[in-house]
Amino acid sequence: MLEYSREMYEMRFKIKVYEGTGNAYQDLFSLIMELCHPSDFMSIRPWGNIGDKKNDGYLRSERHLYQVYAPNEMEAKAAIKKINDDFEGALPHWEQYFDKWSFVHNSYGGVPPHVLETLLALEGNNPSITIGHLGPVELRTKLFDLREEDIAYVLGPPMARPNHIAFEEISEVLSNLNVAVPEPTSAVLEVPPGKLDANGFDENSKALVRLGFRLSPRVTAFFDSYQSDPELGMRVSALLRYEYSRLKRAGNDPNAIYRKLFAFVNRHQESSEAASLAVLAYFFESCDIFEAPPQSVTV
Q: How confident is the model at residue 295 (pLDDT cuts 50, 70, 90)?
């Protein structure tokens, strides 16, 4: 792969998982499975008033039936009902065709205990059927085992020119963020050393932040030369601080916050991913998004 392609593909996949609830996540699952198992996996769509007969996908060679559940938040009562209803509902239509049944979910941190208990109970009550689950981690493994052209088919082409960004690309990203914010603007603060490590970023986030650091001098040069709106940087800084605070209050961990801030900065379809990384890194370095390290922490 080209330099930083894998890191950006990882980011795009995680954004798709976090944003892809319901049918969007089912579409992602089905596409990856069809590419992994051509002429074998069949995705199922609801048909008229008969629906999908509790079958979202079938891997013929393994006699394996899949049912997808991708809510915004997995709640115990709803998840247990969904699992039991889908499994019991599939038996009248498909029992003679499957020996494996898997619960496909979008919970990146793993399944909650009540889901595991329900799956184990199903397997205990149906010893002739293997009961399993498939989450984003397993789906990611399947995706990155594919050929690079298939990965690009799912996630889009590699990031363009990751080592160079033009002022026009920076301007495009900033103009899409140049909106009114619900908090007053305050002074931009310098970031203490060690901030990257202090926030507990995973290796994927660190790699993309470091790429952004390499490119952020172009953002500095852009602001130094941009005279038509001297308040632009202050407004974008305030907007990103507000969005960071909102995401943190909602209970997101630092890696999820970074992914969601990137998606926020890169929200326009014409935006350059490299320029978005650079803009995010610039404000990471020069304003108080993310946490400052303890004073004892050094680079």
A: low
Confidence of residue 163 (pLDDT cuts 50, 70, 90): low
Res 185: pLDDT: 39
Distance CA 41, CA 31 (A): 10
Number of H helices, E strands in the chain: 12, 5
Matching residue, tokens 């946490």: 291
- 16 with 23: CB under 8 angstroms? no
What the chain holds in terms of domains, given with CATH numbers, is 5-155 (3.40.91.50), 167-286 (no CATH)
User: Cβ–Cβ contacts within 10 Å for residue 55, how many?
Assistant: 21
Collapsing DSSP states into helix, strand and coil, what is residue 239? Answer: helix
Label residue 185 left, alpha or beta by phi (over 0 means left) and psi (-120 to 50 means alpha). beta
Give the position of tokens 């995401």: 247
Q: What's this model's pTM, rounded to 2 decimal places?
A: 0.79
Q: What angle do CA 92, 93, 97 make, to 5 degrees?
A: 110
